[in-house]
């Protein structure tokens, strides 16, 4: 089993920055790929960014490319999401997910373990 705990959410003005963290524990070696997803009220959960523990390959949704950066610290079993130039449409609950597969083209259906989520609110 893998346990995930997100942190770092909060309220920020448009154009500001926020850094999210996802601390993983348990059998993390069984989930080679990690991802960030978000879900706004009334909308389906959508993919944001993904990374592999081994090698650090990344992939981003077009909506955040150039503004968000996903990274990982293997020694700390932690994945980060640096969010810059935030827009009101970025407001959502952000979830960390762990995938038993290797693919970075993730859908929520691919995720095997979820964190509890952390709220990000961007004001205009």
Main features:
single chain; 124 residues; mainly beta; 7-stranded mixed beta sheet; 4-stranded antiparallel beta sheet
Description:
This protein is an all-beta fold. It contains no helices and eleven strands. Strands 2, 4, 5, 6, 9, 10 and 11 form a seven-stranded mixed beta sheet that branches. It has a four-stranded antiparallel beta sheet with strand order 1-3-8-7, with no helix packed on it. The radius of gyration is 13 Å and the shape is globular. 33% of the residues are buried.
User: Describe the biggest sheet?
Assistant: 7 strands, mixed
Order of helices and strands: EEEEEEEEEEE
Which assembly state applies to the chains in this document? single chain
Specify the helix fraction band. under 10%
Count of separate DSSP helical elements:
0
**Poorly predicted runs of 5 or more residues:** none
Beta strands, count: 11
What is the mean pLDDT? 97
Into which percentage range does the β-strand content fall?
A: over 45%
What's the shape? globular
Give the structural class: mainly beta
Please compute the radius of gyration using only Cα atoms: 13 Å
Distance separating the two termini: 40 Å
């Amino acid at each position: 089993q893998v346990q995930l705990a997100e942190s770092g959410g909060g309220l920020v003005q448009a154009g500001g920055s926020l850094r999210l963290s996802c601390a993983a524990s348990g059998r993390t070696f069984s989930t080679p790929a990690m991802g960030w997803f978000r879900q706004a009220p009334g909308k389906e959960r959508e993919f944001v960014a993904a990374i592999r523990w081994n090698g650090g390959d990344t992939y981003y949704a077009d909506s955040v490319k150039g503004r968000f950066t996903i990274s990982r610290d293997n020694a700390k079993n932690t994945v980060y999401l640096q969010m810059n130039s935030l827009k009101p449409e970025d407001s959502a609950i952000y979830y960390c997910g762990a995938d038993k597969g290797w693919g970075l083209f993730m859908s929520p259906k691919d995720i095997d373990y979820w964190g509890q989520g952390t709220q990000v609110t961007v004001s205009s």
